[in-house]
Write a sequence for this structure.
């Protein structure tokens, strides 16, 4: 009674009952089935099978009656071929299923790589666009050359104006009467010398 209560405890898994099938390695069996399906799908298999069937027919037709193991209607040959077909079909299906699984994994990997490549391409496109926008605000060599040329022209024009102004000042200074107050600084428009000369004397 105690033994029966111990085996019926709910906190322990129940022992499997019924017929237990033998365990086998599914991967090894799948590789073996793929090898058979690959071999049956070649021309060598068809040629060998044709030769065996031809020998079978010839032996059981032309050999003496006591040596014939499968006389006409070739019942044993029909059984062998049916047995071969009954095993070949599931093995071929198993090989096709394994190939389909491999194709699905390869497709998923290709899709993952394509997604990663698309993301990388979009990232690079955004970076290139940002660089183009940034480079649009940066002074290029041609722009700097044109600006320097414009500044040099402005400096030349300013120098020419200054030379003309100094020349006019020298000309007016030579025409100024000598009785005025003596100043060592040159006459220019900044100090209002020309404005004083233009005012009438009282």
């Amino acid at each position: 009674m105690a033994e029966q209560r111990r085996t019926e405890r709910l906190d322990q898994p129940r022992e499997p009952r019924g017929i237990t099938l033998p365990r086998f390695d599914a991967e090894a069996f799948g590789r073996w089935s793929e090898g058979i399906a690959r071999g049956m799908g070649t021309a060598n298999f068809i040629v060998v099978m044709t030769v065996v069937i031809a020998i079978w027919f010839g032996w059981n037709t032309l050999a003496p009656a006591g040596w014939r193991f499968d006389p006409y209607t070739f019942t044993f040959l029909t059984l062998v071929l049916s047995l071969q077909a009954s095993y070949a079909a599931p093995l071929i299906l198993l090989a096709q299923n394994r190939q389909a699984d491999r194709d699905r994994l390869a497709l998923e990997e290709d899709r993952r790589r394509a997604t990663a490549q698309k993301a990388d391409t979009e990232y690079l496109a955004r970076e290139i666009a940002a660089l183009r926008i940034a480079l649009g605000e940066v002074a290029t060599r041609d722009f700097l050359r044109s600006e320097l040329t414009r500044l040099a022209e402005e400096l030349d024009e300013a120098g020419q104006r200054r030379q003309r102004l100094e020349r006019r000042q020298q000309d007016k200074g030579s025409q100024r009467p000598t009785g005025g107050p003596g100043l060592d600084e040159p006459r220019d428009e900044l100090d209002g010398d020309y404005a004083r000369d233009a005012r009438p004397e009282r």
In short: The longest helix spans residues 75-136.
